[in-house]
């Protein structure tokens, strides 16, 4: 698959971000080495230990499957379906901060769009989004995620295309499988 | 904590560098729907007479020989362009003919069943009317006029308000209840945008009859509460309900004719 020249800076930035995120996972244990014993759980969460390996998510309105790739980096497959429109996307998350059950997430999402008979138009498109979110573990196996980001959405129909930026608020509940 | 502050700062900086971003959408599908709507408006605005339903530029009455296109309303970010208000009455249905308001092809949706009936409209003498009947024992029936083929897209509210659309206009039609109707307890309501039972429902229409047609003219400024339209497809709905409480009569039926939206 060839990368469009316009997408190279974004891809480069994303790669750099993930590298930095992953690098941080190794740096944090050294930083926290002298922390108080009663914050052991927070430390473990912060460095990517004791993390869910596989989670099933229910968003609004979408289904997600999230896996822990390495350290604080998670990857997710996401399918959103509604009447006339479908979105198939992938997300990458970086756990940039964890304080007890509450965590801060930085991530990116990209995906493919397909729509039929929406405003009488049928076509397809794609989107990319950078987002910042907060995730809260309210039960042992249950997490709630809210993230907010800027998406660039490109749609094509009837030989014409349009790209716009849209702010997107996402919410989801996750169940930890293991 | 320092990492969190740095992250928040970077995120804020990135968000601040986003010119032209629109209002927040809940989920990527909503956001994408808005972009598709914008594309639709762009195509319609740039292609006069195009077959896509939408804000068809209005040809003024004095420009029959050389059409002069009135520009469509300025599109606000995330808001679908409406057909420009004009002085022409928009016919939805009359004497067996389905209208094409603002050049849209209408889709008629019934709760129950419907079709033409050979009944005389005693208001204007038309011989064919639109009959709407409930399903079996249902105590209500309604008809909705959609400005688009179904299914409708799942778009968020667009902020279209008919009171701002035709500020001094009226929704007008002739109506008669079916012969078996519970006249004393049947009320009719009308709505614009959204379903008849939704927030756009008007106040009840009094003075109904099962023996002759009544001409109804509802001013948009008083009969229609301000409401948002869900989706890009404005429509009107006309509903009849038997509201006699525990003795609600089943099998409600009504006839409509000369359904139109007038600009004054």
Question: What distance lies between the first and last C-alpha atoms of chain A, to the nearest angstrom?
Answer: 33 Å
> Which class best fits the helix and strand makeup of chain B?
alpha+beta
Q: Examine the coordinates and then state which fold CATH places here, giving the name of the CATH topology of the largest domain in chain B.
A: Jelly Rolls
Secondary-structure element order of chain B, N to C: HEHEEEEEEEEHEEEHEE
How helix-rich are the residues of chain B, as a percent range? 10-25%
Q: If strands are numbered along the chain, what order do they take across the biggest sheet of chain A?
A: 1-2-3-4-5-6-7-8
Biggest interface, and residues per chain? A-B, 51 and 45 residues
Q: How many domains comprise the coordinates of chain B?
A: 2
The CATH architecture assignment of chain A turns out to be Beta Barrel
Structure description:
The complex is a heterodimer of chains A (178) and B (264). In chain A, 17% of the residues lie in helices and 61% in strands. Chain A is α+β, with helices and mostly antiparallel strands and 178 residues long. Chain A has one domain (5-24, 53-176): Porin (Beta Barrel), CATH 2.40.160. In chain A, a hairpin with a 2-residue loop joins strand 4 and strand 5 (102-118). Chain A is globular, with a radius of gyration of 18 Å. The two termini of chain A are 33 Å apart. Chain B is of the alpha+beta class. Chain B has two domains: 2-70, no CATH class; 90-262, Galactose-binding domain-like (Jelly Rolls). Chain B is 16% helix and 29% strand. Chain B has four helices and 14 strands. In chain B, strands 4, 5, 7, 8, 10, 12 and 14 form a seven-stranded antiparallel sheet that branches. A four-stranded antiparallel sheet of chain B has the order 6-9-13-11, with no helix packed on it. In chain B, strand 4 and strand 5 form a beta hairpin.
């Amino acid at each position: 698959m060839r990368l469009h020249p316009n997408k190279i800076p974004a891809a480069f930035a994303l790669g750099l971000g993930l590298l930095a995120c992953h690098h941080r996972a190794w740096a944090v244990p050294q930083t926290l080495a002298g922390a108080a014993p009663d914050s052991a759980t927070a430390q473990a969460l912060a460095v990517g230990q004791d993390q869910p390996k596989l989670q099933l998510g229910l968003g609004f309105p979408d289904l997600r499957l999230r896996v822990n790739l390495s350290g604080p980096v998670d990857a997710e497959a996401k399918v959103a379906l509604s009447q006339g429109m479908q979105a198939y996307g992938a997300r990458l998350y970086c756990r940039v901060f964890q304080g007890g059950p509450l965590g801060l997430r930085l991530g990116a999402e990209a995906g493919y769009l397909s729509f039929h008979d929406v405003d009488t138009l049928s076509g397809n498109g794609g989107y990319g989004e950078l987002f910042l979110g907060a995730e809260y573990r309210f039960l042992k196996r249950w997490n709630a995620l809210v993230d907010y980001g800027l998406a660039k959405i490109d749609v094509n129909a009837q030989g014409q295309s349009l790209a716009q930026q849209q702010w997107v608020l996402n919410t989801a509940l996750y169940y930890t499988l293991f | 904590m320092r990492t969190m502050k740095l992250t928040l700062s970077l995120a804020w900086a990135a968000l601040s560098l986003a010119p032209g971003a629109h209002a927040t959408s809940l989920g990527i599908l909503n956001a994408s729907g808005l972009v598709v709507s914008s594309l639709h408006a762009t195509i319609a605005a740039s292609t006069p007479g195009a077959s896509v339903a939408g804000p068809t530029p209005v040809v003024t009455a004095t420009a029959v020989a050389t059409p002069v296109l009135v520009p469509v309303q300025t599109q606000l970010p995330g808001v679908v362009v409406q057909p420009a208000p004009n002085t022409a009455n928009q016919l939805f249905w009359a004497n067996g003919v389905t209208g094409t308001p603002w050049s849209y092809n209408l889709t008629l949706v019934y709760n129950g069943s419907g079709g033409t009936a050979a009944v005389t409209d005693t208001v204007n003498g038309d011989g064919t009317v639109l009959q709407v009947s409930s399903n079996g024992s249902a105590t209500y029936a309604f008809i909705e006029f959609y400005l688009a083929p179904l299914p409708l897209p799942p778009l968020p509210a667009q902020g279209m308000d008919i009171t701002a659309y035709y500020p001094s206009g009226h929704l007008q039609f002739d109506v008669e209840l079916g012969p078996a109707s519970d006249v004393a307890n049947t009320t009719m309501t009308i709505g614009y945008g959204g379903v008849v039972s939704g927030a756009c429902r008007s106040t009840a229409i009094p003075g109904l009859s099962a023996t002759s047609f009544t001409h109804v003219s509802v001013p948009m400024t008083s009969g229609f509460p301000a409401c948002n339209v869900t989706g890009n497809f404005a429509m009107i709905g006309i509903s009849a309900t038997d509201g006699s409480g525990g003795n609600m009569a089943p099998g409600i039926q009504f006839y409509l004719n000369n359904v139109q939206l007038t600009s004054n």
